[in-house]
Amino acid sequence: MRNYGSKSMPYEESELKEKAETSVPNPDKGIGTRISEISELMGGRKKAAQTAGVALSTFHRWLAGDSIPALDSIARLAQGAGVSLDWVATGEGSMQLGKSDSIPNTEVLGMEDYAFVPLYDAQCSAGDGAWNEGCRVLTHISFTRYSLRKQGLTPDHLSAIRIDGDSMEPILHSGDTVLIDHTRTAIEGEGIYILRLDGHLYAKRLQRNFDGVSIISTNKEYREVVVPRDRLNELEIVGRAVWAAGWL
To answer: Above 60 in pLDDT, residue 162?
Structure first.
């Protein structure tokens, strides 16, 4: 039962290609030492890895110098720790922000009212690490913090991806962007969930039943699939889709 009957969101991309496209130019080989300093500043490696959006195993490879972090990953880490991205990437300048007069103040008045949610590349590898390990951040989508609070959403627990395929039509179309709430990983009534199964990501309706969990497509051309109880450990619910948008 390795084919789960959907062509709706295959995510595959070689790690080698990802590194070639997004790796940080790193003439200074001490980046692992600087990242280690940041992890101590943040209170531990686990928290630092979560802030960077990578698995702890990947973070350890950075520290050991076995892997070069992608720019978007160290940008998230630098922002979360409140340190200079230039310092993390190159070792040049001051570690702390605001220590150099050469850095202009680019803060825009009123931007504190907005939260910026990362939109990940739809073509990302899965595996045993974090669901977004190997993903590339394409851009950030802005939401007013007020609108997110009204829905009970916390910006730090949100991300966005694009749908690939027609299995959820007419609700979701190929190319639509969906917002994922990563705190909602339990099946709770009607809703569309982002799930990982057999190393692929899917957007599907989920329904518990006596035999296991049913994976349901809204497009009637796709059959319903049941993941039996003895294989539920293979089903990972990444989060619940709470918002969607696309071009008309």
So the answer is: yes
Other CB atoms within a 10 A radius of the CB of residue 194 amount to 24
The single residue listed with the structure tokens 């340190």 is 83
Q: What is the mean pLDDT of residues 108-134?
A: 69
More confident residue, 244 or 124: 244
C-alpha to C-alpha distances, 53 to 50, 69, 81, 115, 230, nearest whole angstrom: 5, 11, 13, 17, 30
What gap in Å lies between CA 186 and CA 99, rounded to an integer? 45
Structure tokens at 126: 């899965």
Q: Which of 168, 199, 195 minimizes the C-alpha distance to 184?
A: 195
Domains and CATH numbers, the chain: 15-90 (1.10.260.40), 111-245 (2.10.109.10)
pLDDT bucket at 102, cuts 50 / 70 / 90: very low
- Cα 38 to Cα 22, 41, 44, 70: the distances in Å are 21, 5, 9, 16
Mean pLDDT for all residues in the chain = 78
